Amino acid sequence: MNSETMSTATAPNLEITPTLATEVVVRCRGVTKTYGKGTSAVRALRGIDLDVGKGELLMLVGPSGCGKTTLISVIAAVLDRDGGECIALGEDYATMSNAARTQFRARNVGFVFQAFNLIPTLSIAENVAVPLLINGVRRGEAVKAARELLGQVGLGDRTNDLPSRLSGGQQQRVAIARALVHKPKLLVCDEPTSALDHATGQRVMELLRNIAEGHDLSLVVVTHDARIFEFADRIAEMDDGRIVRMSTGEGHRLAAAHASGPLSTGSSATVINGDDPATPPQQGNRA
Amino acid sequence: MNALALAMLFRDKAKFFGIIMGVTLASLVITQQGAIFLGLMSRTFATITDMGDPDIWVMDPKVQFIDDIKPLQDTALYRVRGVGGVAFAAPLYKGLIRARLDNGQFQNCVVIGLDDSTLTGGPPSMAAGNLADLRQSDAVIVDSVGAIEKLGRINPDGSGRLPLAVGDTMELNDRRGVVVGISNNTRSFQSQPTIYTTYSRAKSFAPAERKLLSFVLVKAAKGADIADLCGRISAATGLAAYTRDEFKANTVSYFVNNTGIPINFGIAVGLGFVIGTVITGFMFYSFTLDNLRYFGTLKAMGTPDATLLRMILLQSLSVGAIGYGIGVGAASLFGRAVSQNTPLAFLMPWQLLVISASAVLIICILSATLSIRRVIRLEPAIVFK
């Protein structure tokens, strides 16, 4: 296990904000990824340096097409990078076979998707049990564990319902339970609140943050939703395949505490700039 | 994961029933048409089947099938009897005869003349009367289907026919015949009534010809090698000698090679296979496409390709087994219904079930292959798009 104490997330000519954690779970150095070839080639990642600490909630933000989804895919080991180095939980993806990466994901990574991706023909307990089944747990035990976890996210009385009978917020809570049931060390979330209204999105993020704190779980969240920036330990702003700015979520928390209403997406740049990247925040400064 | 795969399939009711319908259709058509074909083919050698006693049939070497009569001289019988290993040999006459009905119309019938002394080659069972009654004057035995349908007497009130019964008389090629028994026969391919009488009487019914012996029926001596005996009879007499099964195979082979029946049924069976494959393949592939996002999710969450392959194969084979069961069950019910109430031929041996099961297996594997290729090639990163 890599245990750098103050690793950095860097981009050319940028001030950097170090991870707040004492242990690095994901370390990316010079990660590049290009789609297509020749004149139609698109350089999605242009040398990403990024660390994700243990128990940290890192948000990746930026305009569409800036490389957020590609980066989260590389971090989650579902997509091969072209160049650079990506090490997660001490495992270098470059040296892992496809089968090893598949097994790595099964054991260590939890996924929360924008559209939830719950299998519509399975009950929510069966959906939550899927990662355990993938890891070879017997069906009865897996469903039992799933029911317990659903109870913890407030859906203990709905375990036999199909996903279609739940609201969006409830479905996302099921998705979160599914992402956590096998006790992963890294959770990747793709736009977890974009399909939810503001209040529900806030509750989902509170749930994610509480779970991350309770389980020393590292979270990487891709989002456009500036209203949830306050939940981040750090925010990496991306543009054109690079991380162009790193900040903490502190400014957003302060803004949220004083604002009369939710922050608009358009105000995100201002809020990010409100942080002082030159001044590293103290560890454990979550709201 | 197997239970998960089945739950995904079974609970998607529209797709599930669609796929089942495709497999059922294929299984039903292949089994039912195959059974009718086999039923028809088995009728071509009904005469051989019904004469259970002889081990060997001896005939002119040019004979191709049971109805292809090339008469022998009566001396052939004695030459066969002279071959070592022959327990007994009996003459058999098989020909066509015209029966005059009481409305003045004629009906062609198959007449079988049995050895006068032993009555070898008689019907498999009797519905009325006794085989030995053939020794009475002008005696004939009529098969039950013929007695009811084609040779039945016209009801005086005009409402259908009255079956021939023991004691009735008939006119056969201007000769008198007295019905002394009604036999239970296997329906023949030509569906003509079968009339049994003695060999000598059959010759008197038949038009005058120099040679009238159709076949020599041989019973092998106890312990004799039948195939070897066939060879020795052929060598000694210059005639063709076949075991019962060989003669059946020759008969079927003739009909297969010289009629359009196999092609017609082959087309029906082929169409059933193709339509079943298309429907099943399309529906199963559509089911996979509908679930592609979820297969991608499973893949992203760490499900190995081998597990996904197993899940899809399990889904495909499950619907295959269910559809096959329903299809074969429906074909069996159909066969049961038609064999009791209609003259339609229907024979469903276990080999046919194996063939239709193999066809369904191929359909399932073809359908699953399309889906497996799609899922295996699926990039797990698709879940973030």
Structure, explained:
The complex is a heterodimer of chains A (287) and B (385). Chain A is an alpha/beta fold and 287 residues long. Chain A is built from eight helices and ten strands. Chain A has a six-stranded mixed beta sheet, sandwiched between helices. A four-stranded antiparallel beta sheet of chain A has the order 2-1-4-5, covered by helices on one side. In chain A, helix 6 links the parallel strand 7 and strand 8. In chain A, helix 5 packs parallel to helix 6. Chain A is globular. With 385 residues, chain B is α+β, with helices and mostly antiparallel strands. Chain B is 51% helix and 18% strand. Chain B is built from twelve helices and twelve strands. In chain B, the strands form two sheets. Chain B has a six-stranded mixed beta barrel. Chain B has a two-stranded antiparallel ribbon with strand order 6-7. In chain B, strand 2 and strand 3 form a beta hairpin. In chain B, helix 2 runs antiparallel to helix 9 and helix 11 packs antiparallel against helix 12. Chain B is elongated, with a radius of gyration of 29 Å. Chain B starts with a helix and ends in an 8-residue tail after the last helix. Chains A and B meet through helix 1, helix 2 and helix 3 of A and helix 1 and helix 10 of B.
Global geometry of chain A: globular
Rg from alpha-carbon coordinates of chain A: 19 Å
Order of helices and strands of chain A: EEEHEEHEHHHEHEEEHH
Distance between the termini of chain A: 28 Å
What's the Cα radius of gyration of chain B? 29 Å
Question: Could you give the order of strands across the largest sheet of chain A?
Answer: 6-7-8-3-9-10
The secondary-structure class of chain A comes to alpha/beta
Helix content of chain B: 40-55%
Q: Could you tell me the strand content of chain B as a percent range?
A: 15-25%
- Nearest-integer average pLDDT of chain A: 78
Main-sheet strand order of chain B equals: 2-3-10-5-9-8
Helical segment tally of chain B?
A: 12
Q: Give the biggest sheet of chain B.
A: 6 strands, mixed, barrel
Q: Structural class of chain B, please? A: alpha+beta
Strand tally of chain B is 12
- State the end-to-end CA separation of chain B: 25 Å
